[in-house]
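Run log, item B.
One chain of 326 residues. Sequence copied directly from the ordering sheet:
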Amino acid sequence: MTSPRTLGRSGIDVSALGLGCWAIGGPWTFLGTPGGWSAVDDDESVRALRRAHELGVTFYDTAANYGAGHSERILGRAFAGHRDEVVLATKFGYRVEEAQRAVFVYDSVSPARVRDELTASLRRLGTDYVDLYQLHVGDLAPDEALGLADVLADLVREGKIRTWGWSTDNTDGVRALAGSPGFSVVQHGLSVLGYEDPAMLALLDEFDLAGVNRSPLAMGALTGKFTHATTFADDDQRRRASWHPAFASGRPNAEWLAALDAVRDVLTSDGRTLAQGALAWIWGRSLRTVPIPGFKTVAQVEENCGALATGPLAPHQMDEIAKILS
């Protein structure tokens, strides 16, 4: 069984598995190009969220720009009347045009905009506070990010947020913010076949921060359901996700698929599915990790939640994977 996690210095306890709510935002555009995961069934999204809660998941991560606010509204709908039973995380830093289902960049992320965005997110989520509020602009210069620390600390004192963090893979930026009041979480990429940065994991230990792990299943590439011939709809983010090493030219990356085959037997040990093994690897990597796989269906949620029962990979299994991949 996988033990619950604490969100760094905040003291907020969460399930070891969270859900990432990008996919349930449905179609939207970012700077005029598709930013979503194609069509969604909102009723199925709500059923999936509630099923995850039944299975012990308490942590749900979204962002204002996922569906240009649509993901937040679905979360609010799913947990209306049960707000105190879940830990809700959302993100800020982009200009959201709800009516257009469109998202744009700001010339700068100012403290006033932080407050305005939080007000809009609270409205969509149907709540008067957010548990974890995260800066979503991962490549923001560290000094600009540090300039937001005071307003975020104020929002903690006002009770509008409980803690805050940054979604980034920039270790220099994390070090610059790490001592800021109320800062407890880094959302960073981590998966068995990529995005592992030992320096980031060391920073979490050094400053007593939690690591919320985006793309733990590599946008589905670690579930075993793709081949090199797999294609995606034009409004599916994976069709143009060349920024992610699991995809190339609109298809799953053949080298990634070969690497997945190489570690398949270890990941599926002890009766795990591939997806469950990939989540188990993350838990085996650090006690500070909280993977947040995406989902569209109840079945996907049930499979991912099944990983909680078998727990992290054992040290000898982690060593075996490292040996194979080296």
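Observations after the first pass:
- DSSP finds twelve helices and 16 strands in the chain.
- Residues 5-226+286-310 form a domain with the TIM Barrel fold (CATH 3.20.20.100).
Flagged for discussion on Thursday.
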